[in-house]
Amino acid sequence: MSISPRKITHQVQIGDIKVGGGAPIVVQSMTNTDTADIKATVNQVMELSKAGSEIVRITVNSEDAAKAVPEIRNQLNQKGFTVPIVGDFHFNGHKLLEKYPACAEALDKYRINPGNVGRGKNRDPQFQQMIEFACRYDKPVRIGVNGGSLDQAVLTRLLDENRQKENPDELPAVTREAIIVSALESAARAEEIGLPANKILLSCKISNVQELIRIYQDLSKRCDYALHLGLTEAGMGSKGIVASSAALSVLMQQGIGDTIRISLTPEPGTARTQEVVVAQEILQTMGFRSFTPMVIACPGCGRTTSDYFQKLAMEIQNYLRVSMPSWRTKYPGVEEMEVAVMGCVVNGPGESKNASIGISLPGTGETPVAPVYEDGVKTVTLKGDHIAEEFQALVERYIETHYGTTAQ
């Protein structure tokens, strides 16, 4: 199946990053530190940025958090990190931006939720205040509707209208419509207040894959705002990865989406950066962008009773990913490279020939040698106890000769 052309939306400038308007799909993430803890937040923003997050969102939920934002921005700049910082506001954002103008100025974007920007009679004036701050400081805004915190006034109104129909819609359909209407009406109101369309991004996140796909398909037909994709509360481990991949891949295949986040629940002791890696790998395996050299490796079978090829594949993959922050400028184009680490003679030579550089390790009963192919040509056969070290050295040489300054 071919990839549908990207839907061209308004382009939004967020710091140095362009979102929408045909720009590449952007990867973003969010910290889980207490924003008031400046050191921890700065460190995690840097970790996420090094991993490849192009936008990082932080929680701004208290006066201490709001007071910390300018210093967080200052320390990041001093360390050479210009990644845009987004302030995530709920319930009290209007008060915090009013009391701490330095916070309002330091952030590159505001994220607000129509469902909890204010309750009852306070909803509209507090929403207006948030938009007015965005206009005053020339900041873009993501209007992010969440199924778990949907504006009940909108839902109640649509339910009342639905009851008047001769053939009322089922509750899931009404809820989907309420999510979309909440986003579109809020965006229209933001424009009325003075925020241009190219300062507005929309998201409509829920945790059900099929419902999320339906919502974004409909939303995309009804507006030209830049769209942020994400499956909210995706879950932990493989469940979260699979669910997010399924939902977002379908939408991007249809040309929908300008920026993505993978909302994984981190497993105890694991790095927050996993959500960035997963987002990049979705985009790269779908053919939308390239971030790091891809490692092609076989799953193993009865012919590969040794785990040597698995260890080598893991070592090479980790080596490539860890090296990418410095390689991005030193070796332009290296992210397009493919490395094959294969475990036996069945598919090993063929896959190795098709990769930029590949190795075909011996399987059970095969001669204990490992031919290496570069650009389809066998260049050397490795033997002995140091195949892993020798192959990594060959990968390094390949990168230097094909992507280094002398190769340009």
Walk me through the structure.
Its cofactor is [4Fe-4S] cluster. This is 4-hydroxy-3-methylbut-2-en-1-yl diphosphate synthase (flavodoxin). With 408 residues, the chain is of the alpha/beta class. The chain has 2 domains: 12-286, TIM Barrel (Alpha-Beta Barrel); 294-403, Sulfite Reductase Hemoprotein, domain 1 (2-Layer Sandwich), CATH 3.30.413.10. The chain has 13 helices and 17 strands. The longest helix is centred in the middle third of the chain and has 23 residues, at 171-193. It is elongated, with a radius of gyration of 24 Å. It starts with 11 loop residues before the first strand and ends in a 5-residue tail after the last helix.
CATH level 3 topology of the largest domain: TIM Barrel
User: How many individual domains?
Assistant: 2
First CA to last CA: what distance? Answer: 35 Å
CATH superfamily membership of the largest domain, which one? Dihydropteroate synthase-like
Instruction: Provide the gyration radius in Å.
Output: 24 Å
Summed up, the helix count is 13
Low-confidence stretches: none
Strand content: 15-25%
> Which percent range fits the helix content?
40-55%
**SSE-based structural type:** alpha/beta
Cross-sheet strand order for the largest sheet: 3-4-5-6-7-8-9-11
